[in-house]
């Protein structure tokens, strides 16, 4: 058996299948393209999902990949087992070979056996196989093609050996290959064997999926016309076998990272349970690095939330081994050294990765300080009540208020001999999501589009002629109404249609779809939107205004040209804006998302801090400079390698084939883009930045307008300036100076009022302090006074404390639309158990408010400032003080 590095194993796999006519396809990003059903790519077949569903077609029928994967959320979640077992990870590499209607079981079995036994030279007598219990064909093929004894071929049930993409759709039996690691790795089970136990002796290394059926809603299985193959083999597992180490974590691809953790912590790594924190950190460092490289940022939702959990879990385990300050970003160089040869994208994103990890670690340490005392208080409260389970709603409050992750709460609970109410936490989380969804309102038509895509999966992809033409003659290819195909639609009907050629741009790449009309001599259809499906088919949302049309009929398709031009202005502007951002802020800036409409553009990008006014001005100026330069905008089709050699930039979230469209703006901008653009940058008119804000850790968003929308914004602001100058009785040029004078006059008047109020208060104080009553040897004064604000009310209390040094003073005032309270408690009263913070909390509650403060001084506000409520609050104050002091 060969002793190979992980790097050599990966290359051997890819090269072997290339020699068998497979296309070497690069790993896709961890964010699945156009798939809302998955948080992350968790298997090699994900990037080919639309191919298997018949929604996408490639120019090859055999493929081989080494795919980066994450399993840390949803159905596929290995987070809690990471580091505890020898072979579970959140991040791993899955090597796979695929056939799209080309070869099937025979070749899949032959390829797998040949690669394992001849390329890797694994001993044949240590390989075992499972097949689906009803798959007689695979059972016989394994024996006939490889000579493996029937006694080493196991029939297993559907739970483990029948694969399905979902409840309906493509599915089929699978066959797993196991390697016997020897008795040393065995367990104490009565029967230690495949299908009998789950110990490390019998290591599953390769799964061959024979995709041969289509499952209908009633569960019936229909043979597919073109059966396919999907296989997956874990690189880390194969490396542990060939390198003869006990755990995936001891392989060369992982051990270098673990050694880096040990070096940073100054503590030795042990391969037993003492090394658990080291293994968690090494695994999580890999996940965090690749998730950030693929455009995910830490947040409280979706993928960002999973990233935050993983990153903070690693930071938490760092503390266990003495790494009490942010450290995880220092592990990245070890991750890079381990994986950069196959994944150059992590080298390109190094600055972003290090910055994002460090910032999130720093936030986590602040979270710890704020939330740790709360968590410890929950434990003490539960212990005092005789309980051993921390309440789910309290844990959710801790998460929702302080960002304190449930994983961390579980760890702390376990350390104290407690457990957590995860069901209660999940219920509180679900309740909040429902409220949030209700507040946002509406939904989306993702599921409808998926259903339509499947309905039209066999439909030929028509020609998109919209780059050259705004109107053309076409034929209706299909009509869909209420998710069903139909031949004819009449006045009043709505649905989707396809054309054999179209000028309508289908929504994709952040650009919205075109609208317009479809006409015949006797019919008029209004097109409100256009979408591009995964296979490239453009569908048009229509409503029949008059007449009727049928499939095959010749029609005139006309887009709304003015709307298209407005969209093009905004799209072309995003390219120039992207360039300007990189020039002003640095080359680390990359697009993370966009929206291009006819009204505005939105551009998301990675950057660690808010932009200054000077930076925004420089970005706007640089963009407009290139607009005024009136560069010719040119679009060309070319091989992707050629485009990259010319310096082309790719946009986040877009999927590119071997042939791409390069959009060039003079010599200043080159980007891969399928959208519609102006003929020259001068057509944009001008760009005006409307807003800039943060939308997550390390992620910023700019919104801007161009063309007539920018002109309208200038006009609106000019009209506002004219109205303001008219109100201030001056000219627009003198507006700022006049406003400064008005503000200065207002401040002077306010100071004069304060002086007069102070004199008035002093007179009132001289009368007020004499009204204090004696309660058990301590003076008590409660009163409502006039005060302009909280500062004036505190000033009154301070003057009264000079007159009454050994007293409890409670003052109230109606300030604007709120009730305000200040309480001062002398030391003598504090010694008898009276605290200002506790007292004011009860008082303010009468007026619907709250507050707090020190034992000697506290302040609060309330929503209800009616005289009756304020008097009731003061009456309560007297009662509480008497009860405590008498």
Explain how this protein is built.
It is a single chain. With 886 residues, the protein is of the alpha+beta class. It is 40% helix and 25% strand. The strands form 9 sheets. Strands 1, 2, 5, 6, 7, 8, 9, 10 and 11 form a 9-stranded mixed beta sheet that branches. The chain has a 6-stranded antiparallel beta barrel with strand order 15-18-22-21-20-24. The chain has a 6-stranded mixed beta sheet with strand order 32-33-34-35-37-36, with helices on both faces. A hairpin with a 2-residue loop joins strand 15 and strand 16. Helix 7 packs across helix 8, helix 8 crosses helix 12 and helix 21 runs parallel beside helix 22. The chain is globular. About 1% of the residues have low confidence.
Keywords:
single chain; nine-stranded mixed beta sheet; 886 residues; alpha+beta; 25% strand; six-stranded antiparallel β-barrel; globular; 40% helix
C-alpha geometry: globular
Distance between the termini: 90 Å
The largest sheet, given as strand count, sense and whether it forms a barrel, is: 9 strands, mixed
Structural class: alpha+beta
The DSSP helix count reads: 25
Oligomer state of the chains in this structure: single chain
Strand content: 25-35%
Specify the helix fraction band: 25-40%
Low-confidence regions: 439-444
Rg to the nearest angstrom? 35 Å
> What's the average pLDDT?
87
Quantity of strands, as a count? 37
């Amino acid at each position: 058996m060969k002793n190979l590095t992980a790097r050599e194993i990966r290359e051997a796999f890819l090269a072997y299948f290339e020699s068998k006519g497979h296309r070497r396809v690069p790993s896709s990003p961890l964010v699945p393209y156009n798939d809302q059903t998955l948080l992350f790519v968790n298997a090699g077949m994900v990037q080919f999902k639309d191919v298997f569903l018949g929604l996408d077609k490639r120019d090859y029928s055999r493929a081989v990949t080494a795919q980066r994967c994450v399993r840390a959320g949803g159905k596929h979640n290995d987070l809690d087992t990471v580091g505890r077992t020898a072979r579970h990870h959140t991040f791993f590499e899955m090597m796979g070979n695929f056939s799209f209607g080309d070869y099937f079981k025979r070749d899949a079995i032959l390829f797998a056996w040949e690669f394992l036994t001849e390329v890797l030279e694994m001993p044949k007598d240590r390989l075992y196989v499972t097949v689906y219990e009803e798959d007689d064909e695979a059972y016989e093929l394994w024996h006939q093609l490889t000579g493996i004894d029937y006694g080493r071929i196991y029939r297993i049930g559907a739970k483990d050996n029948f694969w399905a993409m979902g409840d309906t759709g493509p599915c089929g039996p699978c066959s797993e290959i196991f390697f016997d690691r020897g008795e040393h790795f065995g367990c104490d089970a009565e029967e230690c064997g495949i299908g009998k136990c789950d110990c490390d002796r019998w290591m599953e290394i390769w799964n061959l999926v024979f995709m041969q059926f289509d499952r209908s809603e009633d569960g019936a299985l229909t043979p597919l016309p073109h059966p396919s193959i999907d296989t997956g083999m874990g690189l880390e597992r194969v490396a542990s076998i060939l390198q003869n180490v006990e755990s995936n974590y001891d392989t060369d691809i992982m051990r270098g990272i673990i050694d880096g953790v040990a070096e940073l912590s100054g503590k030795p790594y042990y391969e037993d349970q003492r090394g658990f924190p080291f293994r968690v950190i090494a695994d999580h460092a890999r996940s965090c690095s690749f998730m950030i490289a693929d455009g995910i940022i830490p947040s409280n939702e979706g993928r960002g939330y999973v990233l935050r959990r993983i990153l903070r879990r690693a930071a938490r385990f760092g503390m266990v081994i003495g790494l009490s300050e942010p450290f995880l970003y220092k592990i990245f160089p070890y991750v890079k050294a381990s994986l950069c040869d196959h994944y150059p994208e992590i080298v390109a994103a190094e600055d972003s990765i290090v910055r994002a990890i460090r910032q999130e670690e720093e936030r986590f340490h602040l979270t710890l300080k704020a939330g740790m005392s709360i968590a410890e208080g929950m434990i003490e409260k539960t212990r005092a009540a005789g309980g051993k389970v921390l309440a789910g709603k309290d844990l959710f409050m801790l998460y929702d208020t302080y960002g304190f992750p449930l994983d961390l709460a579980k760890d702390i609970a376990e350390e104290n001999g407690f457990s957590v109410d995860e069901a209660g936490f999940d219920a509180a989380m679900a309740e909040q999501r429902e409220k949030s969804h209700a507040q946002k309102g509406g939904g989306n038509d993702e599921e409808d589009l998926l259903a339509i895509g499947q309905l039209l999966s066999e439909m030929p992809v028509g020609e998109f002629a919209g780059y050259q033409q705004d109107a053309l003659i076409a034929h209706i290819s299909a009509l869909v109404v209420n998710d069903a195909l139909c031949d004819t639609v009449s006045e009043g009907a709505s649905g989707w249609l396809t054309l054999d050629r179209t000028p309508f741009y289908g929504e994709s790449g952040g650009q919205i779809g075109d609208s317009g009309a479809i006409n015949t001599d006797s019919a008029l259809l209004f097109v409100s939107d256009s979408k591009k499906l995964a296979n490239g088919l453009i569908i048009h949302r229509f409503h029949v205004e008059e007449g009727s049309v049928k499939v095959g009929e010749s029609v005139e398709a006309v887009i709304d040209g003015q709307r298209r031009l407005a969209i093009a202005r905004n799209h072309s502007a995003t390219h120039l804006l992207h360039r300007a951002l990189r020039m002003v802020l640095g080359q680390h800036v990359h697009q993370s998302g966009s929206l291009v409409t006819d009204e505005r553009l939105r551009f998301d990008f990675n950057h660690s801090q808010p932009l200054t006014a000077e930076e925004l001005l420089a970005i706007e100026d640089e963009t407009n400079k290139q607009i005024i330069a009136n560069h010719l905008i040119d679009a060309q089709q070319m091989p992707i390698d050629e485009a990259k050699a010319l310096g082309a930039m790719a946009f986040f979230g877009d999927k590119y084939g071997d042939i791409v469209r390069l959009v060039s703006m003079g010599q200043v901008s080159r980007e891969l883009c399928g959208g519609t653009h102006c003929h020259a940058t001068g057509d944009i008119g001008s760009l005006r930045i409307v807003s800039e804000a943060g939308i997550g850790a390390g992620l910023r968003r700019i919104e801007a307008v161009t063309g007539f929308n920018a002109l309208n914004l200038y006009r609106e602001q000019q009209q506002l300036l004219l109205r303001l100058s008219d109100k201030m009785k001056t000219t627009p040029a003198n507006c700022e100076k006049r406003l400064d004078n008005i503000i200065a006059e207002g401040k002077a008047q306010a100071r004069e009022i304060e002086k007069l109020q102070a004199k008035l208060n002093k007179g009132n104080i001289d009368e007020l302090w004499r009204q204090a009553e004696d309660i058990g040897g301590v003076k008590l004064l409660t009163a409502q006074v006039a005060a302009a604000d909280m500062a004036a009310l505190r000033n009154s209390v301070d003057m009264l404390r000079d007159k009454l040094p050994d007293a409890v003073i409670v003052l109230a005032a109606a300030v604007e639309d709120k009730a305000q309270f200040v309480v001062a408690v002398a030391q003598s009263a504090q010694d008898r158990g009276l605290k200002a913070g506790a007292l004011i909390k009860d008082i303010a509650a009468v007026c619907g408010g709250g507050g707090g403060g020190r034992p000697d001084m506290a302040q609060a506000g309330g929503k209800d400032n009616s005289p009756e409520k304020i008097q009731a609050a003061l009456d309560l104050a007297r009662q509480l003080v008497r009860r405590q002091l008498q």
